[in-house]
Amino acid sequence: MSLKRRSAMFVAAAAAVLVAMAPTAANAAPHTAAASAVVTPNSSVNGSISASEILSRAASWNGTPYSTTAYKYGPGGDIAYRTDCSGYVSMALHLSSSLTTVSLPSVVHSISKAGLQPGDLIGVLGAGTSGNAGHVLLFDSWADSGHTQYYAWEDSGDAGVHHLTMPYPYWPNTSGPSPSLYQPYRYNNESGSTGGGVPPWPNVVEGNTGTNVEAAQYLLDDHGASVATDGQFGADTLAATKAYQSAHGLGVDGQVGPQTWSSLIVQIQEGSSGDAVKAAQLELNKYGYGLSVDGQFGAGTESAARAFQSSHGLGVDGQIGPQTWETLVGD
């Protein structure tokens, strides 16, 4: 929920990174947020919201002190939000209450670095991220052509709400989570996304057939369900999906959409085995790799994963994580 860094530590880390990167004066933190001018609000609570409105709401709190106990109204005065990092992001997204880093995954889904757009989130979210174990901030735009730095809106313990230049994905050597744990996310109700690298998660619903249905069935079984992996989204798959959603605090609609896909997938790599591997092998075969769907992540599956990543502009590591899963399923 929060990231409490002392000012001295923040400044030291910032100086070390920025000196190493030798940025121009225009890229030095903090950054003037001219691109985030306030626009007329058009969203409703928990409704569809544009990236420009997310950033305008973020800018409206510029200079607000950080607190885990204080509350402040967002633009329009309809909801009071907690003034820590996750409460700040909840305000920017125009949610009905202040979520935490633990609960924010219920309203966002994973995206790739290549797919980052203004108004997206970068953070350490999910189970086990309460207190100093989690943090979240808002992506504004890239600060350099190499995508090693970006402009961000952040609410932090040392500076409150401010707009700054950040090394991707986050400062090293802070008292909070390791930078390697930070991942990009997009609000499920953000409107007007223009893509950029990774196709969106599909909605798989009752009556659908095909590879994505079968992959979803394998993933459900990997989490303890016992549905037939026949590629037919019938009553049994619907019931298993609803049961999974209920057990994991997701909206229970029986559809395998962005939230459910993001929750179902697991990181797999060479040496992994089981139904999640079968799902990945099945999806890779959709692109012509001709793998045996045996649930064993061996050299052949790793080679196919690397080839797929290379051909789709992803980081090539041979592991199937959130970005690779989303591209496999969504393409």
From TrEMBL:
Molecular function in Gene Ontology: hydrolase activity
UniProt keyword annotation of Nucleotide-binding present: no
Keywords in alphabetical order: Hydrolase, Signal
Domain of life: Bacteria
InterPro entries according to UniProt: Papain-like_cys_pep_sf, Peptidoglycan-bd-like, PGBD-like_sf, PGBDSf, TAT_signal
Signal peptide: 1-28
Pfam family, one: PG_binding_1
PROSITE patterns: TAT (PS51318)
Every Peptidoglycan binding-like domain range: 209-264, 273-328
UniProt name for this protein: Peptidoglycan-binding (PGRP) domain of peptidoglycan hydrolases-containing protein
Organism lineage string: Bacteria, Bacillati, Actinomycetota, Actinomycetes, Kitasatosporales
